[in-house]
Write a structure and sequence with these properties.
With 382 residues, the protein is mostly helical. 81% of the residues lie in helices and 0% in strands. Helix 5 packs antiparallel against helix 14 and helix 9 runs antiparallel to helix 15. The chain is globular and about 60 Å long. It starts with 5 loop residues before the first helix and ends with a helix. Pfam families: MFS_1.
Length: 382
C-alpha cells in the first residue's frame, strides 16, 4: 500500500539534497528486494526441515513488526533499517508457494501457482489504490499502521487456522543413469539453472516499463492520470482473467509440451511489445497491455510450477525460494535496464528492448526443450 509514496514521505521527513533523497528512495524500494533475493532460499531450506507453517508465521510476524516500526519512526535511517530487515525476514510469497505445494498433488501445483499469481496481481493493483486513499485522508504513517494490523491478523489466522505440515530430512535420491547422462553432457544447460535464468528474463521484461511508462503516457499518449492508472491495471486484468485458463491447459501436459507452448507465448509477448512501440493511441495501449497480461499469466506461474513438480518434496522450500530470488533479481535488473534505457533511447522506443528480452527467452526455452529431448533419447539408448 505504501510503495508509490516512499520518495514523497522521505522528502517530507527531513531536508535532504536531491542526491541523498535519490539514494534513500532507492534503498527504500530496492533494499527489501535485494534482502529477499538473498534470504529466500535460506528460509525455504529451513522450512523444508522444520515445516512451512511456522515459516509463514515467521514471515507474517516480521511484516507486522517492521510495519509497526515504520509507522512510529521519524528518522530516515531507522526506516531504512526496518525496510532491510523486512526484506530479509519476510519472503511470504515463496513460503506460501512451498506450504501450498506440500498440501496438494504434483499435478495440481500449476493451478496453485496460477491462483497465487492472481492474488499477487490483485494485491499489487488494489494495494496502491487503497494506500493512495489512506495517504490522502490520514497520512503515510497510518498506511503502515493499518498494514501492520492486517499482517498481525493474518499471523494469528495462520497460527491457529492452518494445519501444520511436518518438515522432512530425507535426501533426494537421483537416478544413477540420469545423473551419468547429465555429467556426460558437458554442453547441456541444467534444467534448474535454465528455469531460473528464464525467470530472471521474464521478470526483468515485466518490470522495465515501471520506470518509464508514466512518462510515456504523459509525453506520447497525453493521458490524464486516471488513464495512466487504467493502463497499469489493464495488465493485471489480463493476467487475472487468463491465469486459470493456462493452469488448466498445462495441468496434464509433459514438460516438453509446456516449454513449447510458453516459448510461443514469449514470441507473442515480443509481437505485442513491438505493437506497443508503434502505437500512439490510448486504446491501442490498453488493448495491448491486456493481451500482454494474458500471455504473462502463462509464464511466471508455469516456471514456478515446473520448479515445484521437478523437485523432491524435501526441497520445495529451497527450490521455490531460488525461483523467487530469481524473480527479485529480474525485477532489479528490469528497473536498472529501464532506467539506463531512458538515458539513451526516446521514451516511445523503450518497448523494443523488452521485446528483445522475450525473443531471448524464447530461444532459451527452445534450447532447454531440445536438450531435454536429447537427454531422453540418450537415456533410452543406454
Amino acid at each position: 500500500m505504501s510503495a508509490p509514496f516512499w520518495a514523497q514521505h522521505l522528502h517530507q521527513m527531513t531536508s535532504m539534497s536531491t542526491m541523498a533523497l535519490a539514494w534513500a528512495s532507492g534503498m527504500a524500494y530496492a533494499g527489501p528486494m535485494i534482502m529477499t533475493m538473498l534470504c529466500s532460499p535460506l528460509w525455504g531450506k529451513i522450512g523444508d526441515r522444520t515445516g512451512h507453517k511456522m515459516m509463514l508465521v515467521r514471515a507474517l510476524l516480521a511484516l507486522t513488526v517492521t510495519q509497526f516500526w515504520i509507522a512510529f519512526s521519524d528518522d530516515v535511517f531507522s526506516i531504512l533499517i526496518a525496510r532491510l530487515l523486512q526484506g530479509a525476514l519476510a519472503g511470504f510469497i515463496a513460503t506460501a508457494q512451498a506450504y501450498g505445494s506440500s498440501l496438494i498433488q504434483r499435478d495440481q501445483r500449476g493451478t496453485l501457482m496460477a491462483h497465487l499469481q492472481m492474488a499477487t496481481a490483485i494485491g499489487s493493483v488494489s494495494g496502491p489504490m487503497v494506500g493512495g486513499y489512506i495517504y490522502g485522508s490520514l497520512g503515510f504513517n497510518q498506511i503502515n499502521l493499518i498494514a501492520a494490523l492486517i499482517c498481525g491478523t493474518c499471523t494469528l489466522a495462520t497460527l491457529f487456522c492452518l494445519q501444520p505440515v511436518n518438515g522432512t530430512k530425507k535426501s533426494v535420491i537421483v537416478d544413477a543413469k540420469e545423473n551419468q547422462i547429465h555429467s556426460n553432457s558437458a554442453h547441456s544447460l541444467s534444467p534448474l539453472l535454465g528455469m531460473l535464468f528464464a525467470i530472471v528474463l521474464i521478470q526483468s521484461a515485466k518490470m522495465m516499463p515501471q520506470v518509464f511508462f508514466a512518462i510515456y503516457a504523459d509525453q506520447v499518449l497525453h493521458a490524464p492520470p486516471w488513464l495512466t492508472g487504467a493502463c497499469y491495471g489493464a495488465l493485471a486484468v489480463g493476467l487475472c482473467v487468463a491465469a486459470p485458463f493456462w493452469a488448466k491447459r498445462f495441468a496434464h501436459k509433459s514438460r516438453s509440451a509446456v516449454l513449447r507452448e510458453i516459448e510461443y507465448c514469449c514470441w507473442a509477448c515480443a509481437v505485442i511489445l513491438g505493437f506497443q512501440a508503434l502505437s500512439h493511441q490510448w486504446w491501442q495501449i490498453v488493448v495491448s497491455r491486456i493481451l500482454w497480461g494474458v500471455f504473462l499469466a502463462a509464464l511466471l506461474p508455469v516456471f514456478y510450477s515446473l520448479l515445484s513438480k521437478e523437485s523432491s518434496d524435501a526441497q520445495q522450500g529451497w527450490v521455490l525460494g531460488l525461483g523467487n530470488s530469481a524473480a527479485k533479481a529480474g525485477a532489479l535488473a528490469g528497473i536498472a535496464i529501464g532506467s539506463l534505457g531512458m538515458a539513451y533511447l526516446p521514451v516511445a522506443q523503450l518497448f523494443w528492448p523488452i521485446g528483445f528480452i522475450y525473443v531471448l527467452t524464447a530461444f532459451v526455452l527452445r534450447y532447454q526443450r531440445q536438450q531435454r529431448i536429447s537427454l531422453t533419447l540418450m537415456s533410452k539408448s543406454i
